[in-house]
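Check out one such.
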Amino acid sequence: MKNKIFLGVQVFVGLMLFVFGLNGFLQFIPLPVPAAPMAEYMSALLATGFIFPIVATIQIIVGLSYITNKFTSLMTIMVLPIMINAFLGHLFLDIGGIAGSAIIILGIVVVMIKDKAKYKEIFKS
């Protein structure tokens, strides 16, 4: 039963990452207008020309990995810095938009708990 709950959370987070990643390319979900500091930050990232496509691609790949339950430990390590950055950006610049990144971060923590044996060597001192 516990494994099914963990897998359900993983698939849910995978779907969120996949949809948000696709939205990065197709813009089918209109984004709310962010607060001024967040808009400036996002404009700077957009001006680079490569950050948002890379993030969207990683979100799509990780989402598919979570949905298919393949390479989840590796994919978690790939997406966690991106999602922490998104969470902290919203926390400090636009608290109103924090819900999505907070849900994904919590889901990633659940996935890490599910696969905690695979992270033993990383956290070994």
